[in-house]
Amino acid sequence: MTTLVTGSTGFVGSHVARQLIAAGYSVRVLVRPSSDLRALEGLAVERFEGDLRDSLSLDRAMKGVRRVFHLAADYRLWAQNRDEIYESNVQGTRRLLDVAAQAGVDRIVYTSTVATIAVPSRGSKLPDEETKATLEQMIGHYKRSKFLAELEAIKAASSGIPVVIVNPTAPVGPGDWKPTPTGRIIVDFLNGRMPAYVDTGLNVVAVEDVAAGHLLAAEKGRIGERYILGARNMTLKEILEVLAVITGRPAPRIRLPHAVALAAGYADEWFSRLVGREPQIPVEGVRMSRHRMFVAGGKAERELGYAPKAVEAALERAAQWYEQNGYVRGRSAAGGEAQRRAA
User: What residues does 226 pair with on adjacent strands?
Assistant: First the structure.
């Protein structure tokens, strides 16, 4: 069976491709001419050049395909041209679903985001797959675009196209070349660039478990349903404390008020526009951090057999990988824990 993976050069997508190959699938990947292919090194994949904005390239890549994993997305919290985010994430998803339907594929797994679910809720109940969020609750253009793209997937499923939706939380682990926003937190900590923290929280999960959840969704997921692929709700302070144990570095003790972080974000974006670079502190990211993105899992475990493993081990694998691949300056990132174990 030929399986098409979009977004295979990304963090989660490369792990999905790797696990599909290990399971014996023939894997075809859609890559742009400008894509960074490091995540695909050593993988026996069939490469097709194309773009979500080009229906003809999608049609070529879809020929002979029986199953599609659509992970490609424009994952930027800041862009000079915001229309590019919607063109890739919304219109691109619509194009791919249309082409896949015309090709008669057996199953499409669409990768959404936990952001379409993890919105502030009343009372003590955490959001889950039954939470009905609104576009107005989405902070920033990335989240809005993914919300609209998820609606495209739901609409396609209601029309008979075999789409299953997965909503990953914040993956960590090896192979995060870009790195992702969560990965940047780890890299900044490892490089001593995090003297303070903000009061926020994420659901953290091993990237390998997210990839395994994609394969389970393809086999066992119900058409039109959403499945959260997460593991553990953790405050940023808790994440940094785990990293401190792993690395031997001290965790920051100063909690930074959101107002200060927001002011720094606006100043950084203003300067970034002047010099033409991507901001280091995107305002949208700071605004998102005002809300803890905690969710209630369980549906994927019950219906798919999804079984995420310990987050601490994933954070340690991530720290080791960043150190081994030149993201950490002048120190072994995972040395502290190794030295304590030896002692």
Answer: 165
Rounded CA separation 317/258 (Å): 30
Domain extent listing, the chain = 2-172+204-231+296-308
The per-residue pLDDT for range 131-168, each reduced to its tens digit, is 999 999 998 888 999 999 999 999 999 999 999 999 99
Name the CATH superfamily, with its identifier, for domain 2-172+204-231+296-308: NAD(P)-binding Rossmann-like Domain (3.40.50.720)
Assessment of whether the complete model's pTM goes beyond 0.90? no
Provide the β-strand partners of residue 108. Answer: 68, 163
pLDDT at 280: 64
Q: Which two tokens stand for residue 300?
A: 């994927």
Residue with the bigger pLDDT between 278 and 222: it is 222
